[in-house]
């Protein structure tokens, strides 16, 4: 009855929620300490970008954006039923669409709208709009044009921020202490936990997707993997697009003695264009962050992989 009344709302059983304990033998091991020492330090960043290049990029992005359709009103009919679960609508026949005449549309203040959405100056926005040659599209469908233009500009801004970012490691006292694994509580639900782990710094692995679940299972079963950690939420990389939490820290042993250290992103697709702009930008910023930490002998390598086979194939080429 509760499931029916709640509709599509996902309800989790609080009885299945567990606190995940640390596996002390892994946490204090020399192998994990060596891994953690390579990734624990914090950084700060600066962004430098060419303002003229950003503007020309925005102009090109708006010029090449999809066409704008005319404003339309769509009429749809439905029967309504009110019950315990709320209001349910069943669509009936009789839907119709009316195309609006451009002269009947009240035009909003496009400069103010785009300034609020992009944080660029009015002068810059006016230049982008006029040189893109798309202003007539604004009269055709103001709302769709504003959505399209703000999306194009913000995408170019994200690319410019990522391309011009430089990270610098902070002082030796600025780092994530290993003790945080014990003091910061980690919880999860049974249906999203890999239970039987031996190499993980946690006794169970809390995963967010099937890709992560399979990756953790492969880490456990492969002899080349010595220790690993599903990085907890408090381990964050600062980026101009918001903080980012990488997925894994992994230690691989080659030929019984040589070690390679990895920070791994597990993605179902390794192609950047398949990732959302913001997520892809954060990943590239994380790459720059770990590159800045990569001083000294045998630094940690930051990469995206779909599975452990891809990780080991990469390791074999090093």
Description:
The protein has 318 residues and is an alpha+beta fold. The protein has two domains: 2-46 and 167-317, Trna Endonuclease, Chain: A, domain 1 (3-Layer(aba) Sandwich), CATH 3.40.1350; 51-163, no CATH class. Helix content is 38%, strand content 23%. The protein contains twelve helices and twelve strands. It has helices spanning 2-6, 24-27, 30-37, 51-63, 110-118, 122-132, 135-140, 142-163, 180-183, 210-221, 277-293, 308-317, and strands at 17-19, 43-47, 72-83, 86-99, 165-169, 187-189, 193-194, 205-206, 225-230, 248-254, 258-266, 301-305. The strands form five sheets. The protein has a four-stranded mixed β-sheet, sandwiched between helices. The protein has a two-stranded antiparallel sheet with strand order 1-6. A hairpin with a 3-residue loop joins strand 10 (248-254) and strand 11 (258-266). Helix 4 packs across helix 6, helix 4 (51-63) packs antiparallel against helix 8 (142-163) and helix 8 packs parallel to helix 11 (277-293). The longest helix is centred in the middle third of the chain and has 22 residues, at 142-163. The radius of gyration is 26 Å and the shape is flat. It starts with a helix and ends with a helix. The mean pLDDT is 86.
Round the Cα radius of gyration to an integer and report it: 26 Å
CATH architecture annotation name of the largest domain: 3-Layer(aba) Sandwich
> How many domains comprise the coordinates?
2
Broad structural category: alpha+beta
CATH topology of the largest domain: Trna Endonuclease, Chain: A, domain 1
Number of helices: 12
CATH classification, class level of the largest domain: Alpha Beta
Query: Order of strands across the biggest sheet?
Result: 9-10-11-12
The coarse overall form would be flat
Give the overall average pLDDT: 86
Weakly predicted, low-confidence segments: none
Regarding quaternary structure, what we see is: single chain
- Compute the number of strand runs: 12
User: Helix-strand pattern, N to C?
Assistant: HEHHEHEEHHHHEHEEEHEEEHEH
Strand residue content: 15-25%
Largest sheet geometry: 4 strands, mixed
Helix content: 25-40%
Give the CA-CA distance, first to last residue.
Answer: 58 Å
């Amino acid at each position: 009855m509760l499931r029916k009344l709640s509709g599509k709302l996902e309800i989790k059983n609080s009885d299945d929620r567990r606190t995940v304990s640390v596996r002390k033998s892994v946490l204090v091991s020399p192998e994990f300490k060596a891994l953690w020492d390579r990734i624990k330090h914090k950084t700060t960043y600066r962004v430098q970008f060419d303002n003229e290049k950003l503007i020309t990029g925005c102009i090109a992005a708006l010029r090449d954006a999809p066409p704008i359709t005319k404003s339309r009103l769509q009429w749809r009919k439905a029967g309504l039923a009110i019950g315990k679960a709320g209001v349910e609508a069943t669509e009936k026949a009789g839907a119709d669409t009316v195309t609006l005449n451009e002269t009947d549309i009240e035009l909003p203040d496009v400069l103010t709208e785009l300034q609020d959405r992009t944080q660029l100056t009015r002068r810059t926005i006016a230049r982008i709009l006029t040189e893109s040659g798309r202003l007539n599209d604004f009269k055709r469908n103001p709302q769709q044009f504003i959505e399209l233009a703000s999306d194009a500009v913000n995408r170019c801004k994200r690319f410019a921020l990522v391309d011009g970012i430089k990270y610098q490691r902070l002082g030796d006292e600025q780092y994530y202490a290993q003790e945080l694994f014990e003091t910061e509580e980690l919880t999860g639900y049974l249906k999203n936990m890999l239970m039987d782990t031996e190499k993980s710094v946690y006794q169970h692995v809390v995963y967010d997707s099937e890709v992560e679940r399979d990756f953790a299972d492969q880490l456990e079963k492969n002899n080349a993997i010595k220790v690993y950690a599903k990085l907890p939420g408090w381990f964050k990389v600062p980026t101009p697009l918001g903080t980012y939490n990488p997925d894994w820290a992994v230690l691989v042993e080659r030929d019984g003695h040589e070690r390679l250290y990895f920070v791994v992103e597990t993605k179902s697709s390794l192609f950047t264009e398949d990732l959302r702009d913001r997520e892809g930008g954060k990943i590239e910023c994380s790459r720059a962050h770990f590159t800045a930490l990569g001083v000294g002998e045998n630094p940690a390598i930051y990469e995206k992989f779909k599975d452990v086979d891809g990780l080991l194939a990469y390791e074999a080429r090093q």
